[in-house]
Amino acid sequence: VDSAVSGLSSSPTEEKKMGHRRASSSAAGVYNINDLEKEGKELQIAKETQKLNWKLNTSPATLDDKEALKKFLTTPPVKKIDLHFPLGLEVTARNMKGVTIKDALDAIHKQFKKKADDELELPVLAGFEWDKEESWTRLIVHQKKEGAPSSGGGKKKDKKKETYDE
Length: 166
What we know:
Helix content: 25-40%
Number of strands: 6
Structural class: alpha+beta
Shape: globular
Order of helices and strands: HHEHEEEHEEH
Strand content: 15-25%
Distance between the termini: 59 Å
């Protein structure tokens, strides 16, 4: 019994050390978005995101504009930010050194990489919008068709397929 008790007493100090080490991994000048909200600091979104013409189901590595990918998604840079899609999907981009455009695209791509082009009604990223009235801590993702043939809503097709299978 004594050994178990002594084992317990030593573990909290180890946890504290780990927690401290983790905190130091974030770069100076990179904020927690909740702190920005408390301080009322407004976010600016990198304009480059609107010019990328990136398809959500393709890897961000295929983009020509490699320099844009390295830029911070927001000013001031944040450790993590939620990216909210109009249909309700939400993904979170994280980077302790500051979320870059690439981090955001990677998080989005992870959700869409298995989708075929005709499953996506709006397959191309049009940009991000920050609406502090809606939510301070997330960006709204805007998508566009970009000349892709309209599929008439991929989700409806899936439902029909399911009924045929039965």
